[in-house]
Amino acid sequence: MTNIILFGPPGAGKGTQANFLKEKYNLVHISTGDVFRFNIKNETDLGNLAKSFMAKGKLVPDEITIDMLSNEVDKNPEANGFIFDGFPRTKAQADALGHLMDDKDSQIDAMVALEVDDEVLVQRLLNRGKTSGRADDADESIIRNRIKVYYNETAVLKDYYQKRDKYYGVDGVGSIEEITARLSKVIDSL
User: Region NMP: which residues (predicted)?
Assistant: First the structure.
């Protein structure tokens, strides 16, 4: 089983690459945002619990998120592994994800981060904003703030996985095929 955390700033191409990697390696892509939306929309117990925190303007506790991710892993017993996207974001979450995978007799094999120059990210997101309908893709100051928040929040995770020899930075600039080939080289080496 191969389990990777796919990381990168907004606009790095995580969603695009996750789609190729899940097909190539028969992995299940678990996007934390999608999992939250599914649980809330379908009014699951965890979704209702998460919604109660969000309604008060509070962050959803890590335990609820981990329980949602655990359910997603359990739904896919035949998977060759998982691509985690959007989680973890803190050291505590990284520890919790590690424990979750231990409980499933598995582990996180790598954090693979798409590395892209900030100016390229800004242009990608502004271009995406022309068709995505997302307000946060159309305003350059919001885009720059999202990128800054990403680096501030995730620097600790780069260090966390580097200390465990599980961090792999991959150049996220080039054609989709070139980037997929770089990511595949990392995954094939695990």
Answer: 31-60
